[in-house]
Specification:
Blueprint (H helix, E strand, L loop, with lengths): L1 H75 L16 E6 L2 E9 L11 H10 L4 H14 L8 H4 L7 H5 L3 E2 L5 E2 L4 H4 L16 H8 L3 H13 L4 H7 L13 E8 L4 E10 L2 E4 L5 E2 L4 H8 L1
Antiparallel strand pairs: 1-2, 2-5, 3-4, 5-6, 6-7, 6-8
Helix pairs in contact: 2-3, 2-7
């Protein structure tokens, strides 16, 4: 009898221990879920805060650039009423306070070369021709580009490297194809063009002559005149139109653009937004918050 009582007591003890183990597991599980839930809430709050902080910084950029556009006529004639006004412009890097956050804003001038996505077949053919490729191959290369272009366009220059039907010499600058099919030194497609600016406007001082020739259908002698103007200093628009020809006029149309890179100090949240001028106002492209990714300029500095 005593032995049976001891066995029952042992079973009860085991049962109690098993219940305690289960309850401990449940308690730990609930605590873990609570901790994860709190972390998720904090992450959502932080992300929302950072997004609206950077959106506010974009709105500030647009307002400051609009002010600069309105003051532009006064600044050109050095009117006294505009003296001492701190206007925002390309090349600026500024620190501003949004709420309780410090935001660093870097403004970069728009693309030097027009957006490659906007080139039509004739312009692509002329571009490849200006790169030293014979006429027949230039036409084939133009068709290859259009066939490879996604419906929403190439995302960036890196995407151009994936055009399998273009020779690596054309894409990467290993050389250029001559009339006899040989390779020699020359610019690469990736070096010449830009992707994503959504503009065909050229920079008289910086856009590669091959691109100017392709878009303006300019003759060699016109390109020589433009190159001479560049060597003499910053190219004046009116002088260029008179010296080179009216064909340049359409290449200078289009709105001014800038890239705004915004970074919250002490945080890994940042964004880059394309700004496009429309008269005295500035519009912004779609906003996308980035977290945990190095900003483009930081990548270039690290690579250097």
């Amino acid at each position: 009898m005593a032995r049976l009582a001891r066995q029952q007591a042992g079973f009860i003890l085991l049962y109690v221990l098993a219940v305690m183990v289960v309850l401990s597991g449940l308690a730990l599980s609930v605590a873990y879920r609570e901790r994860v839930g709190v972390q998720l809430v904090h992450n959502v709050v932080d992300t929302t805060h950072d997004e609206y902080t950077l959106r506010s910084a974009v709105a500030l950029c647009r307002a400051q650039l609009a002010l600069a556009a309105q003051l532009e006529p006064l600044l050109k004639v050095q009117d006294a009423s505009a003296k001492g006004v701190d206007v925002w412009q390309a090349g600026d890097e500024r620190m501003v306070t949004i709420g309780e956050s410090q935001v660093r804003i870097r403004l970069t001038a728009g693309a030097v070369s027009p957006d490659f996505n906007l080139f039509d077949e004739q312009e692509l053919t002329r571009l490849f021709g200006a790169m030293g490729i014979d006429a027949d191959k230039a036409k084939l290369h133009a068709k290859a580009v259009l066939a490879a272009k996604p419906a929403d366009g190439f995302a960036d220059r890196e995407a151009l490297r994936q055009i399998s039907d273009l020779p690596s010499a054309v894409l990467l600058g290993a050389g250029k194809e001559g009339k006899e099919g040989k390779e020699g030194g020359g610019p690469s497609l990736v070096e010449l063009v830009d992707v994503g600016s959504k503009s065909k406007r050229i920079d008289l001082d910086k856009t590669p002559l091959e691109v100017v020739a392709a878009l303006g259908n300019l003759k060699p002698e016109q390109l020589i005149k433009l190159q001479r103007l560049r060597l003499a200093g910053p190219v004046n628009k009116e002088q260029a139109l008179q010296t080179v020809g009216a064909e340049l006029g359409k290449l200078l149309e289009g709105s001014e653009s800038m890239l705004a890179t915004l970074k919250i100090e002490g945080s890994d949240s940042w964004a880059d937004v394309q700004l496009q001028r429309n008269g005295n106002t500035w519009n912004s492209s779609a906003f996308k918050l980035r977290r945990g990714q190095p900003e483009p300029n930081k990548q270039e500095e690290d690579a250097g």
